[in-house]
Structures are given as C-alpha cells and as structure tokens.
Amino acid sequence: MSNWDILWSSYDVFLNGFYNTLKLFGLSAVLAFILGSGIVFLLEGSRPRLKIPLRIFIDAMRMLPFLILAYLLYYGLPSAGIRMSAWTAGIIALVIYHGAYFAEILRGCRATFAQGQVEAAIAQGFSQPKMFMRIILPQLILKTRGLLGNQLIILLKDTAFLVIITVRELTAAASSLSSTYFIPMEAFIVVIGFYWMISIGLELLIKMIGRFGAKRGFENA
Amino acid sequence: MPETAAVSIRKLSKSFDGTEVLRDVSLEVQTGEVVSILGSSGSGKSTLLRCINWLERPDHGDIRIDGDRIGVSDSGKPMSRRELAGMRARLGMVFQGFNLWPHLSVLRNVTEAPIHVQGVSKAEAEERAMALLEKVGMVDKRNDYPYTLSGGQKQRVAIARALAMQPKVMLFDEPTSALDPELVGEVLGVIKDLSKEGYTMVLVTHEMEFARAVSDQVVFLDKGIIIEKSHPSEFFVNPKTERVRRFLELEVPVA
C-alpha cells in the first residue's frame, strides 16, 4: 500500500478536519466582521469616552502574535478561574484578533469617506445606525474589499494555529495522520490542497464583490 | 393673526473659532415663497442655509419651521437625535456637490430615505420616486449608477431625492456652482418649474439672472449681516446700498 493509499483510506479524518476548519473559519469570519464593523460604528460621532479604549483594544490586538492570544485564552485564563473548551477559546481568539484588524481596515477607509454623503443622509433624517448600515458600511466594504479579502485569508491560515490548543481542525487531522503512519510529506500536501480550495473560494467571493463595485464606479477604489 | 411662516429665523448668530460668520440675522419665508440669498464668498450665506436644517448649530437665536422650533425642544433642552431627524425630514436639502450615494442606483437614491426614514412601503416609495424622476427628466436613467451621470443629471437626481421626503421647504446650497456652464440651464430649469408649482424654496446662488427671475424676495448678506432684503424688481434695479450696487456691477453684465 502506497502512502497515498493510506491517506485515501483515512479520507474521513481529512473530511472531518476540513469540515471543522470551515466551521471555525465561517463562524469566526462572520463574527469578527460584525465586531469590526461594530467598533467602527462606535468610533463614529460623539462618544469620546469609548474612543480611547477602542483604539487601545485595536492596537493591542495588532501588536500581539495570534498564537500567544490563543495560548493565553486556553492555557492562561484557567489560572484566573475562567475555563473554556478549546473550540470556544479558539473562536474567541480568532474573533477578537481579526475583529480588531477588520476594524482598523474599515476605520482607515471611513476616515477618507466623503463628508457630503453623510450630510445628505443627515439632512434626509437618517438615524446614525441606519446611516451606517445603509450608506457608510456598504461603501466601506466595496472600497476595502481587497484588504478584507487578505484579512480573511490570514484568518483562514490562523485557524491552523488552533491545533496547538487541541482543536480538531484540518492541520490537526494531517498532523495526527502523519505521526500515526509517519508520512508527513503526503499528509501535509493534502491539507495544503484543502486550504487552497477555501482560499480560491474566498478569491472568487472578493471578485464578485469587485464586479458589484465596478458596476457602481468603485473599480479604482 | 398672521399666517405662520414656513421658515422663521430670529436673531441668528454663529461664529467659527472666534470669527463671526452670522450676526443677528432675521428672515421670514412665507409658504410658497422663493427666497434667494446672495452675497460674495465668505459672507455667510451657505452657513445661514445650513443652520436652517441644523447641519450647523447656531450660537444664538432661533429657527422655526412651520412654527416649530428646530434644534431645541419645548423644554428648552437640545433636541434628541430622533426629534432633530424628524424636523430635518421637513426640509429638503440640495448640495453644491450633489452628494448622491454612489453604491445605490438613481431610483434607490430617491427611495432610500422614504423607505428607511419615513417607513413608506417600497411600492409607494417607488411610485413617488418615478413621478419625481419624471419631473426632473431622469426616468430613463433610473437603473443607472451615479458615476455614469453628468453633473447636471446628478443634481437633478439630488433634487428628486430631496423632494421624495415631501418636505415643506426646499433648501438649495449653490446648486449650480459645481457644474459646467452648459449644464447649469437644465438644473435651473428644474428649480424654476418647482417655483411655478408653488414649492417654498430658499436658494443660495451666484446666478443673478436666475435669482431675479424666480425670487419673491432677495436677501443680501455681507460679512454675516443682512444689509438688503427686498423684491427682485427693487433689488436689481434700484439697490439701496452702495455695497449691493458694487456687487451687482461685478456680477451682472450691463444690459
């Protein structure tokens, strides 16, 4: 039996890992984006007391290696009496870490947003949340789609770190097969293929957003 | 008892960083009236217009829309965002820079606020929008996006968007100043039609001929003070002050 046959016979291990990675990625990406958008909304307007802590949070996350954050949540917090499952710790780590990055990307773009459009919305009687959801956020997404796409791919790759806090995702599947049968080369090549598949899907999604934007004159943003 | 003015401005003052932009400005706009605010750049005319819908907060004085004070609630406290939004919805604003929302089609630019601010049904908002786009000659472009339009077309859509909220008063802040000369006419044409239909309008403009043709009242601002307020037939023919006479000599070619 060749090494590839061994891997084929354990395809269910890969599929399970793939499924878990997708679930981790999908859930964290959605929640991180909501968190990032929420932070940018709170940075709008007249809430000076929130501004400083939010900026500190964003900068703190950006200056921290993701792996250390995951370690801290899973291995560090129990000593403070807070115990979470590996999944919960992993998702929280991904969400707050990448949420801060999403916030930074959107905030940078918000700073260059045409004030006249905001005034037009205010003059029409829009409330702040509605103006943010309907006028500002859609345009921020169209303008930053390239950066958001990069960040999503980094998020995807960061899910692989969670093998270290025992989450049974794709890299964990490869790692366990490689040590059981001692075929690291083949096992990891297979997971690279899986990561590529998800990344290509993301690229397609960003392209679709790009086409949506180009129709509206956002192609050079 | 006189009829309540559509807009009533009393003793309005406003400073930016210690520089006085408006001083003790008072002005009444009756329903159905068209009032043009003239003056050189920096005279405070745009600030005055922007105070009417509270895009700028005046330092002193009060502004009433149909008798209701904007910006300050009955208890004397500053209005909540919600109350302010309700007052602003009575005023339609058209900006020099159009300020259309580029991610929305022409039609959706016009239906957005009626649906999401007034809570009008989508069907009704679209019906209303189509009638207005017809009025400004932009029905054919309803599914296009703003970046494909010329400046004049953008401004006509912006006028339809402001009208869609069925405002009591329309405010125009130099609506043709950002347009190529050959596009000015189509926008002024639309505004003129509105004046014939009896819309109440306050207009900041540099188009003297136009102001003369559509206005019921012309107001001249100089360094934040109203120095003349009269009917256009009086204002343009027989100005009371030397300042206005000089201004008109520079702005209006001698006929």
Automatic annotation (TrEMBL), chain A:
One of its GO terms (biological process) is amino acid transport. The keyword Membrane applies. Keywords: Amino-acid transport, Cell membrane, Membrane, Transmembrane, Transmembrane helix, Transport. Pfam families: BPD_transp_1. Signal peptide: none annotated. Coiled coil: none annotated. It is found in: Cell inner membrane; Cell membrane. InterPro entries: AA_ABC_transptr_permease_3TM (IPR010065), ArtM/GltK/GlnP/TcyL/YhdX-like (IPR043429), MetI-like (IPR000515), MetI-like_sf (IPR035906). The keyword Transmembrane applies. GO terms for molecular function: transmembrane transporter activity. This is Amino acid ABC transporter permease. It comes from Vreelandella glaciei.
Automatic annotation (TrEMBL), chain B:
One of its GO terms (cellular component) is plasma membrane. Keywords: Amino-acid transport, ATP-binding, Cell membrane, Membrane, Nucleotide-binding, Transport. It holds the Pfam family ABC_tran. SMART domains: AAA. It comes from the Bacteria. PROSITE patterns: ABC_TRANSPORTER_1, ABC_TRANSPORTER_2. Its main location: membrane. InterPro entries: AAA+_ATPase, ABC_ATPase_HisP-typ, ABC_transporter-like_ATP-bd, ABC_transporter-like_CS, MetN_ABC_transporter-like, P-loop_NTPase. It is found in: Cell inner membrane. GO terms for molecular function: ABC-type amino acid transporter activity; ATP binding; ATP hydrolysis activity. It is a peripheral membrane protein. Residues 7-248 form the ABC transporter domain. Belongs to the ABC transporter superfamily. This is Amino acid ABC transporter ATP-binding protein. It comes from Vreelandella glaciei.
